[in-house]
Design goal:
With 408 residues, the chain is an alpha/beta fold. It has 14 helices and 18 strands. It has a domain at 7-71 and 101-175 and 275-357 and 381-387: FAD/NAD(P)-binding domain (3-Layer(bba) Sandwich), CATH 3.50.50.60. Strand 9 (141-144) and strand 10 (147-150) form a beta hairpin. 46% of the residues are buried.
Length: 408
């Protein structure tokens, strides 16, 4: 089979799946993306693209700055409910240390730009994948609601509740509820502000006792807002605005004004989960798992989407020039390269959530003191393994087996 004829089926049109599709398309693969939803999501939330994700995008020639814009907040940090800062990282310091600052963008803008980088017809909506048969064979069969497809490689980017993960890891314990629920939305620009306007709020996460409220200005003037609270699984108050006011309405400005501007119909509410334990591997023959399907993590480090982007770029690099017969070896090399890094971040995100979401007054006071006493240089150094930890494998020789990718 010629290189051009190699076919990848990507299951899921989220950030990870579309990044994999773009990377493989630009490497000469034919790609089909199967997405169960009827069309692109019109609502959603924001995502902060950390320096590691931006470097991964650079590796495939995708310019995320064209989506996000170049404007970033002057500082990012953590505050108390009374408004006092516990920590504050200057964006210039982040840029000096990592080569660029994080970029905040609406998720739908990012997925739209990734989809636009693919040939027409690549993304097939309303096409749910029901199963993948014979991934260890030469021609895995992908059964969908719209028919059957054969592929040289199948990429499972089917999200946190991944049916394909359940199909091939039936004994894995699955997801673990973190003990928290979250509300997310994106607000239009406030009157008198625009992209990068001086009236945009600072990027900050405010910590109370078992409650957090985050405000992230997007480069186009909109504002990504999220809140979390310790709550039982399935907690769903009928009046979301009343719930947010009850919990956060007495916190520092501009939180009360932000709550007043929220459209309850545009709020996404989710319980927060991560994988209870690591998967034993991220591959099976010609089938690979990426993103939340492989290593679902809580959002406490802001790395869920960033790690999905890394996954996609590493997998595509290992598949780039790989002969059809060597695809299983390339997929196994991807699994070896990614499992240790992503699972360490999953565990670290869980611990960060427990630290931030303490409910006892004495524990919260000790937490705040620890954060406030940490020098900025030490806080930045703690980010090195996240932001500088992305490793792109060597490009395999044309038509040959992939190199043995080292763990990241």
């Amino acid at each position: 089979m010629s290189e051009v004829a190699r076919h990848a089926v990507v299951v899921g049109a989220g950030i990870g799946g579309l990044t994999a599709a773009v990377a493989l398309h630009r490497a000469g693969w034919r790609v089909t993306v199967c997405e169960r939803s009827a069309g692109p999501a019109a609502v959603g939330a924001g995502i902060v693209l950390a320096p590691n994700a931006l470097r991964a995008f650079d590796a495939i020639g995708f310019d995320a700055a064209r989506v996000a814009g170049g404007t970033v907040p002057a500082a990012m940090g953590v505050r108390r409910p009374d408004g006092r800062w516990l920590s504050r990282a200057d964006t210039a310091a982040l840029t000096a240390r990592y080569g660029r600052p994080p970029l905040a963008v609406h998720r739908s803008a990012l997925t739209g730009a990734l989809a636009a980088a693919l040939p027409d017809g690549t993304v097939r909506h309303a096409m749910a994948v029901t199963s993948v048969l014979d991934p260890d064979g030469r021609d895995p069969l992908v059964r969908t609601s719209g028919g059957e497809l054969t592929a040289d490689v199948v990429i499972a980017a089917d999200g946190i509740h991944s049916p394909l993960r359940r199909q091939y890891f039936p004994d894995h314990p699955g997801l673990r509820h973190s003990g928290e629920t979250a509300w997310r939305t994106v607000l239009p620009p406030a009157h008198g502000t625009g992209a990068g306007g001086a009236g945009a709020p600072a990027a900050a996460e405010t910590w109370g006792r078992g409650e957090r409220f985050g405000v992230v200005p997007l480069a186009d003037g909109r504002v990504y807002v999220y809140a979390t609270a310790v709550a039982p699984e399935g907690y769903r108050p009928d009046d979301v605005i009343a719930e947010l006011r009850r919990r956060f309405g007495h916190w520092h400005d501009p939180i009360p004004e932000i709550i007043a501007r929220i459209d309850p119909a545009a709020v996404l509410r989710h319980d927060l989960y991560d994988l209870a334990t690591a998967l034993p591997r991220y591959h099976r023959g010609r089938l690979a798992w990426i993103g939340d399907a492989a290593h679902a993590m809580t959002p406490n480090l802001g790395q869920g989407g960033c790690q999905a982007i890394e996954d996609a770029v590493v997998l595509a690099r290992l598949l780039e020039r790989t002969a059809r017969a060597d695809v299983p070896a390339a997929v196994a090399a991807y699994s070896r390269a990614r499992l240790a890094r992503t699972d360490a971040i999953r565990v670290r995100a869980r611990r960060a959530g427990r630290f931030a979401a303490v409910t006892h007054p004495l524990a919260a006071a000790a937490r705040d003191l620890a954060v406030r006493a940490t020098p900025e240089r030490v806080a930045l150094r703690a980010l090195d393994s996240l932001f500088d930890g992305f490793v792109l494998p060597a490009r395999p020789a044309t038509g040959g087996a992939p190199p043995r990718a080292r763990a990241q």
